[in-house]
Amino acid sequence: MSLYREPGRRRNGAVIGAAAALALGLAAGYATGRATAPSPSIAEQVQDVKNRTRTVIQGFELVRTHYPRDHEAGRAQARRAQESFADVRGDLASLDGIRAEEAADAVEEAVRATERNATAKVVVAAAGRAIAVVRAAALLGD
User: Fold this and answer.
1) What three-state secondary structure class fits 142?
2) Which sign does the torsion angle of CA 96, 99, 103, 109 carry?
3) What value does the mean pLDDT take over residues 113-117?
4) CA–CA separation, 93 and 90 (whole Å)
5) Residue 19 and residue 97: Cα distance in Å, rounded?
6) Which has the least CB within 10 A, 35, 47, 128, 134?
């Protein structure tokens, strides 16, 4: 047995072991966190609702463009926008239930205006209101 040993060797091994255990713990924690994270994130879900709501808005913009020239084309666009709204309505209610109901009423009124052959001025105004209220329900500031 050696009478002369370096006292730092034992400490170096302990430090290396502790560092390895810390690295392993961090890796395990990260992996567990990613495995239990919701997929997709709430921010991604909200962005998806906003994107789907833009389809409704674009539909009513087309109503304002087509209805004055061609009532049937405007009416068809209004129905498609209404169908798109039906697909996103529940998600809008999750964001703001009251605004989602106001949006549903505005969408319904715009569609009814096209179906009763209202004047172009009335339909354009109803579609504009639907756009504004749907935009507010989806929290779209653009």
Assistant:
1) coil
2) positive
3) 96
4) 5
5) 51
6) 35
Question: Tokens at residue 137, please?
Answer: 């329900």
At 5-47, the pLDDT tens digits run 665 555 666 667 777 777 777 777 777 766 666 677 888 888 8
Cβ atoms of 80 and 137 within 8 Å: the answer is: no
Per-residue tokens: 34: 């990613």
At residue 83's C-alpha, the angle toward residues 64 and 85, to 5°, is 75
d(CA 99, CA 135): 10
Q: What is the DSSP string of 51-110?
A: HHHHHHHHHHHHHHHHTTT-HHHHHHHHHHHHHHHHHHHHHHHHH-HHHHHHHHHHHHHH
